[in-house]
Design brief:
Order of helices and strands: HEHEHEHEHEHEHEHEEHHEHHHHH
CATH class of the largest domain: Alpha Beta
Shape: globular
Number of domains: 3
Largest sheet: 10 strands, mixed
């Protein structure tokens, strides 16, 4: 078979062929991704459970209790793998699940913080971007003070907050349920106002109380049981009825404050997850909650073993959202995205600088030769840089907008970069056009699949 040298004309034909081949490759890979995502035997690999808090916390402990019951009782054919993604009050982990593929293999365990975060401006989304699987366990919050506090009930505390607004330091995780517990209380007493201090999780809020850096805080029942022996005192329970383990602790309602603030551990999947997979996971969670090992553990933590799913779950979420929205802080003005603006400005300035530099060199060369300025001519390397920059920006934008899967997008991106870097002067003249096309298609397709496997299966990182 005759070989066709890669001259400049053939090089243009090569690029056209590569563009067509790349498009066909991307379409084929997209089809493969869709077929893999179709409901078949589920699950066929471990299910990732994102816990958006550090290991050892209340949510992590709860998740591991359920994980152990599911594994020991073989409630799912594949294991549930907990991945802690702490930060920003749980919003980093929730955003990761929101952006995950809706195939049932990436779940989120997040309590009422998923309802409160949006009202504080931490995120712009709420439960509507997820598919609710189940609500498990329920525990009212406890308003507590240090052992030396002069307050012995909620009435005394709220009278002081009304008499001298902002004088009482309320330790909270801003934007989380502990913060909203205080907001609900002060809304019930005209003129009352706490001064909130950001301390984070239960252990840090307890340390603030013990160190005298805060006057009052809100704990979950489990946290209060853990810290009670160190001298803190409960002023009231923010639940509908008294807790059977603390019959002497009056509720806020009994003390004249119509406040209910409870934490339930909600299980979420990305919106669009197949309903049959949602049901299968919900069935496993329901069965796990009925096991003796889970009931015994939750009893130790003073958490009820309630399970909500379907319509009862939706009604419960709506009630919680109404209570939170009623006391949510006023919306604050959002500042412009200065980071993005600065990046765009730098990129534009860089392009302008390159053009100006080229023009100066062109004019300088023209003056030296004492001739009129020559017509603009862009060097091949500058062309390559411009094309690569543009293709990279488009690639990143497509990934961010999730308009196309990682595998086909990466294959197209690799093909584009490869065709841009191919030069007739650096290619062996004995290589035929067919071989050049086949090589680039093979490399691009293989690289995209291997990278996807490396990140999703080995490094356990979700990709678009």
């Amino acid at each position: 078979m005759a070989r066709i040298p890669l001259d400049h004309r053939t090089h243009r034909v090569l690029r056209s062929c590569l563009l067509v081949a790349g498009t066909l490759l991307a379409a084929a890979l997209t089809g493969c991704e869709r077929r893999l995502a179709e409901p078949q035997d589920f699950p066929r690999r471990p299910i990732k459970l994102i816990v958006p808090f550090a290991a050892g916390g209340g949510s992590d402990t709860f998740g591991r209790i359920i994980q152990s019951a599911i594994e020991e009782n073989q409630l799912l054919p594949e294991p549930l793998v907990i991945i802690n993604v702490p930060g920003a009050g749980g919003t980093i982990g929730s955003r990761r699940v929101k952006n995950a593929r809706p195939d049932g293999y990436t779940l989120l365990l997040l309590h009422d913080g998923i309802l409160t975060a949006r009202h504080c401006g931490s995120v712009s989304y709420g439960p509507e971007v997820f598919a609710a699987i189940a609500g498990t366990g329920n525990a009212g919050q406890v308003i507590a003070v240090g052992a030396s506090s002069r307050h012995h009930d909620l009435t005394s505390l709220m009278n002081a907050a009304a008499r001298d607004p902002d004088s009482i330091l309320f330790s909270a995780n801003i934007g989380a349920p502990s913060h909203f517990a205080g907001l609900m209380l002060q809304a019930e007493r005209p003129g009352a106002s706490f001064r909130y201090t950001q301390n984070g999780g239960g252990a840090k809020r307890f340390a603030a109380l013990q160190g005298g850096h805060a006057d009052v805080t809100a704990f979950s029942i489990a946290e209060f049981v853990q810290f009670q022996s160190s001298g803190i005192r409960a002023l009231g329970l923010l639940g509908p009825v008294r807790h059977p383990e603390f019959p002497e602790l009056a509720t806020a309602r009994e003390q004249g404050f119509d406040v209910i603030s409870e934490n339930m551990q909600f299980w979420w999947a990305p919106a669009g997850t197949p309903p049959e997979r949602i049901e299968q996971i919900a069935d496993a969670l329901t069965a796990a909650m009925k096991t003796n090992q889970v009931r015994d553990k939750l009893a130790e933590m003073k958490i009820s073993d309630v399970v909500l799913r379907g319509e009862p779950l939706e009604k419960d979420l709506q009630q919680r959202q109404r209570r939170i929205a009623a006391v949510a802080p006023a919306a604050t003005a959002r500042l412009p995205d200065f980071t993005t603006f600065a990046i765009l400005l730098v990129v534009m300035t860089g392009f302008v600088a390159l053009i100006q530099s080229f023009r100066r060199r062109r004019d300088s060369a023209s003056r030296i030769q004492n001739v009129a300025p020559v017509s603009p001519h862009i060097s091949p390397r500058l062309k390559q840089l411009s094309v690569i920059s543009f293709v990279t920006i488009v690639y990143v934008a497509l990934m961010q907008m999730e308009r196309i899967g990682f595998v086909p997008a990466t294959a197209l991106y690799s093909m584009s970069i490869g065709t841009t870097l191919v030069s007739p002067s650096i290619i062996d003249k004995r290589i035929t056009m067919a071989k050049a096309v086949a090589s680039l298609v093979l490399v691009a397709g293989t690289m995209s699949v291997v990278i996807h496997y490396l990140f999703t299966q080995i490094l356990v990182v979700d990709l678009p």
